[in-house]
Write a structure and sequence with these properties.
By secondary structure, the chain is of the alpha+beta class. Helix content is 54%, strand content 21%. The strands form two sheets. The chain has a four-stranded mixed β-sheet. A three-stranded antiparallel β-sheet has the order 1-2-3, with helices on one face.
Length: 184
């Protein structure tokens, strides 16, 4: 789904429907096989029943609560940040004006997540996330703590290098304008 809030709502609905389905399956299975299971508690049908129930519950909790996030590769250079994952590619132009900051993940959840223009890259699993505003569009990078620190350091380093190059170019053009032009 394109809208992340709709995807989240769909996931919650799927979890609830899955829980109800598993409950019905457990009751129906018990109703069908309870006589055999109670007759021989250590027999084959009982072991298969309990193993299937435990396996079903564990797999349900794993897929609904733990989940997974597709791998995201982030490349940063002086011109851009390019984030690619399995189903999308995001390009952030760093030659335009932008700002980078670290914000609390609660602030992201309460404010930026509900803002339709926000693009989330990665998954919010730690207490802080990186926020980059570029041309009026917020990009939130949900990375593990170690990767987040490295990412911020690289982006800030590139930001300062870009500003130095820009100010150096302005300084060079200023010097050229003030140099006397030889007259022949």
């Amino acid at each position: 789904m394109q809208d992340e809030l709709r995807s989240e709502g769909f996931q919650i609905l799927t979890i609830v429907v899955g829980f109800v389905f598993i409950t019905f399956v457990q009751f129906a299975t018990w109703a069908a096989f309870s006589d055999q299971i109670l007759a021989d508690a250590l027999g084959g049908p009982a072991i298969v029943f309990w193993a299937a129930q435990v396996g079903l519950v564990i797999s349900f909790f794993f897929f609904s609560l733990v989940g997974f996030t597709p791998e995201t590769k982030i490349d940063v250079n002086l011109q851009a940040i390019r984030a690619t994952s399995k189903d999308r590619e995001i390009f952030i132009d760093l030659t335009d004006k932008y700002s980078v900051e670290v914000i609390d993940s609660d602030h992201y959840q309460k404010h930026y997540r509900k803002y339709a223009a926000t693009t989330l890259i990665g998954a919010v699993t730690d207490s802080t996330v990186a926020l980059i505003w570029s041309t009026g569009h917020p990009f939130v990078f949900g990375l593990p703590e170690y990767d987040l620190k490295r990412f911020i350091a690289v982006v800030e380093k590139n930001q300062s290098a870009h500003h130095q190059m820009k100010s150096s170019a302005e300084h060079d053009s200023t010097i050229r304008r003030t140099e006397p032009v030889p007259v022949s």
